[in-house]
Amino acid sequence: MAKASREKGRKAEGEVARLLGEHLGLTLKRRLGQYQAGGHDLDGWDGVCVEVKRHKRATQGDVATWWQQTLEQCAGSETPVLAYRADLQQWRFVIRPIDWGGAVAEPAEVDIDGLCAWVRHGQQLKLEVST
């Protein structure tokens, strides 16, 4: 991987970590060495696997490819979340609503507010089940 591409990825991972920290109170850190060893990009969100993509453009085909990669990186053991951003655009997230207490298993694309709503919904369901 070229140095410029790694630097762009590093910055993107930092942006997503800060964004999720601001909105969800998470303390996420870049997963060092994922370029060599594979695996997801951010650590610190228990049970959730975050893959980050930052590109000039983000076509539907790109997003579908990135989502497949996210599923592979998560290896079925963690809840997958794809964060991506094209130039001059806001961050977008791909999730499976069923992982957060929804009825739909197909991937859904949401903005940061939508992601936060699903996360809070999932947390509320866990609280209701445990009480």
Q: Which CATH class?
A: Alpha Beta
The share of residues in extended strands comes to 15-25%
Strand pairing plus helix content: what structural class? alpha+beta
Number of helices: 4
Summed up, the domain count is 1
Largest sheet: 4 strands, mixed
Give a written overview of the molecule:
By secondary structure, the chain is of the alpha+beta class. It has one domain: Trna Endonuclease, Chain: A, domain 1 (3-Layer(aba) Sandwich), CATH 3.40.1350. Helices cover 46% and strands 21% of the residues. The chain has four helices and six strands; from the N terminus they run αβαββαβββα. The protein has helices spanning 3-24, 34-37, 60-74, 112-130, and strands spanning 29-30, 42-43, 48-55, 79-86, 92-95, 108-110. The strands form two sheets. The protein has a four-stranded mixed sheet with strand order 3-4-5-6. It has a two-stranded antiparallel ribbon with strand order 1-2. It is globular, with a radius of gyration of 14 Å. The termini are far apart. The model has no long low-confidence stretch (mean pLDDT 87). InterPro entries: D14-like. Pfam families: PDDEXK_15 (PF24608).
Secondary structure: elements and pairs:
Blueprint: H1 3-24, E1 29-30, H2 34-37, E2 42-43, E3 48-55, H3 60-74, E4 79-86, E5 92-95, E6 108-110, H4 112-130
Main traits of this protein?
single chain; four-stranded mixed beta sheet; D14-like; 4 helices; alpha+beta; two-stranded antiparallel sheet; Trna Endonuclease, Chain: A, domain 1; 131 residues
